[in-house]
C-alpha cells in the first residue's frame, strides 16, 4: 500500500484516468486539481475552476479522456482535453437543488447525476445540437439521492437516498441505444421503471454497488448495516448488522468479496457466499506508514483539538487514515478473483492506494486475505497466518 498527502484540506472526491498516471481531486472547494504521477510523487498540472460552489462528485470516463464534475452550484460540466487545456461543456440539468453525486455509464455514452431535487438526471450527448441533455427519473424518490452505481449492462442504475430506500431503475434512453433484453432484475425496462426497492429503517443509504456480473447489489446504510440483494433468488436480501461506525461506501472486489469503509477510518472486508452467508472478515492491519509529506502546524493543532487532548500521540488513530474515507476501484483492477487494487481519500487530506491479494481456501473453512506487503487480515476464526500456503 502507498500513502500520500495532498495538504491539510479534506478531499471530498477523487477519480483516476485509465492508466492511473493522473488523478483528479477536489480539496473540498469549487476547484478540481489534476496531479501527474512522477517518481512516486504527485505534481499538480491542471486546475479546473468553472464551478462556483463546492464540488460533490468527480468521475473520469474509464476508457476516454473525459471528466464529469458536479457541485452544489446545481451545475455539471463535461471536461475534454484539447491542445493541453481542459475545456468545459455545461450540461443542461434542470435541477433546483445541489448536485450530490455523478457516475459515467460503462459504455460512456451517458452518465447519471443525483441531487437534492429528489430526482436522478440521466445525461446524454445530442449530436444535432452539440450539447448535453438530461432526462429525469422522479418516480418514488422522496429525498436527496446520495449514491449511484451502474449495472454492467449499461441500462440498470442503482441509487441510494436519504429517504432510507435503495432502488434499481431502468435508465434506458431510446435516442442513443438499442432496446435492452431481459435481465435477472426484470424484463420490462422503459425509462424510469423501478425494478427493485428496499427500505431501511436504520437510516440513509450512503453507498450502493453492483457485483461484476450484476447478479448482486450491495448497499450500506447509516445504521452500520451491509445488505446484499440476489437477483437470481427472487431479489432475496441478506443483511449483516456490524458493530462499526456507519459506512459511507462499498465496493465489490470480485463476485464474493466486498470492502466497505466510512467513519471508522479504515477498510473492512466482507465475504458473501450462497446461500445467504454474509460475514465480516475483519479490518486491516493497524500498522501505519509515514505520510509522504509532513503535517503542518495547523494540522498538528487540529489533531489535538479533535480529541481534546494535550499530547499529539493521543490524538492519532491507529490507522493509515485519520478521518472518514471513501473508496474508488482503480481502472486497471477489474474484477480479478485473486487481486484487487483500490484507492481511498478522506477528510484527513490523504490518499491511500491499496494492493490486496485475495485467497480463498474453502476446504479449510476459512477465508484469508493478505496485503501484498505481507500483513494478514485476522480471519473470522481468530487465527493469524504468517504465510500464504495452507498447512
Automatic annotation (TrEMBL):
Main localization, broad class: cytoplasm
Family to which the UniProt record says this protein belongs: Belongs to the WD repeat ARPC1 family.
Listed InterPro entries: Apc4-like_WD40_dom, ARPC1, WD40/YVTN_repeat-like_dom_sf, WD40_repeat_dom_sf, WD40_rpt
Protein name: Actin-related protein 2/3 complex subunit
Per-repeat ranges for WD: 48-84
Entry superkingdom: Eukaryota
Keyword Transport: no
Biological role: Functions as component of the Arp2/3 complex which is involved in regulation of actin polymerization and together with an activating nucleation-promoting factor (NPF) mediates the formation of branched actin networks.
Lineage: Eukaryota, Metazoa, Chordata, Craniata, Vertebrata
Annotated GO biological process: Arp2/3 complex-mediated actin nucleation
GO cellular component terms attached to this protein's record: Arp2/3 protein complex; nucleus
GO molecular function, one term: actin filament binding
PROSITE patterns linked to this entry: WD_REPEATS_2 (PS50082), WD_REPEATS_REGION (PS50294)
Amino acid at each position: 500500500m502507498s500513502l500520500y498527502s495532498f495538504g491539510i484540506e479534506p478531499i471530498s472526491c477523487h477519480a483516476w484516468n485509465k492508466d492511473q498516471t493522473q488523478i483528479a481531486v477536489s480539496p473540498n472547494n469549487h476547484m478540481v486539481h489534476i496531479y501527474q504521477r512522477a517518481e512516486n510523487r504527485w505534481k499538480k498540472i491542471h486546475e479546473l475552476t468553472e464551478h462556483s460552489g463546492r464540488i460533490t462528485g468527480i468521475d473520469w470516463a474509464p476508457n476516454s479522456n473525459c471528466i464529469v464534475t458536479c457541485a452544489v452550484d446545481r451545475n455539471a460540466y463535461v471536461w475534454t482535453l484539447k491542445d493541453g487545456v481542459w475545456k468545459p461543456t455545461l450540461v443542461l440539468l434542470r435541477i433546483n437543488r445541489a448536485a450530490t453525486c455523478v457516475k459515467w455509464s460503462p459504455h460512456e455514452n451517458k452518465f447519471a447525476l443525483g441531487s437534492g431535487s429528489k430526482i436522478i438526471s440521466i445525461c446524454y450527448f445530442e449530436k444535432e445540437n452539440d450539447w448535453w441533455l438530461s432526462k429525469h427519473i422522479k418516480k418514488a424518490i422522496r429525498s436527496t439521492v446520495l449514491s449511484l452505481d451502474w449495472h454492467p449492462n449499461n441500462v440498470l442504475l442503482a441509487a441510494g437516498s436519504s429517504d432510507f430506500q435503495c432502488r434499481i431503475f431502468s435508465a434506458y434512453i431510446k435516442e442513443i441505444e438499442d432496446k435492452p433484453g431481459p435481465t435477472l432484475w426484470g424484463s420490462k425496462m422503459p425509462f424510469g421503471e423501478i425494478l427493485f426497492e428496499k427500505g431501511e429503517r436504520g437510516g440513509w443509504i450512503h453507498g450502493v454497488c453492483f457485483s461484476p456480473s450484476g447478479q448482486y447489489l450491495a448497499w450500506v446504510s447509516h445504521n452500520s448495516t451491509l445488505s446484499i440483494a440476489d437477483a437470481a433468488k427472487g431479489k432475496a436480501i441478506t443483511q449483516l448488522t456490524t458493530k462499526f461506525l456507519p459506512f459511507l461506501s462499498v465496493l465489490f472486489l470480485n463476485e464474493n468479496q466486498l470492502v466497505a469503509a466510512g467513519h471508522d477510518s479504515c477498510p473492512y472486508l466482507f465475504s458473501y457466499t450462497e446461500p445467504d452467508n454474509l460475514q465480516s472478515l475483519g479490518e486491516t492491519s493497524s500498522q501505519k506508514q509515514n505520510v509522504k509529506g509532513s503535517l503542518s502546524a495547523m494540522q498538528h493543532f487540529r489533531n489535538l483539538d479533535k480529541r481534546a487532548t494535550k499530547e499529539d500521540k493521543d490524538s492519532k488513530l491507529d490507522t493509515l487514515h485519520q478521518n472518514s474515507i471513501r473508496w474508488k476501484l482503480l481502472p486497471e483492477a477489474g474484477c480479478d478473483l485473486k487481486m484487487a487494487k483500490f484507492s481511498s481519500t478522506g477528510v484527513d487530506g490523504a490518499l491511500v492506494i491499496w494492493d490486496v491479494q485475495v485467497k480463498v481456501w474453502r476446504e479449510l473453512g476459512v477465508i484469508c486475505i493478505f496485503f501484498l506487503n505481507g500483513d494478514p487480515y485476522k480471519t473470522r476464526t481468530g487465527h493469524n497466518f504468517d504465510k500464504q500456503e495452507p498447512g
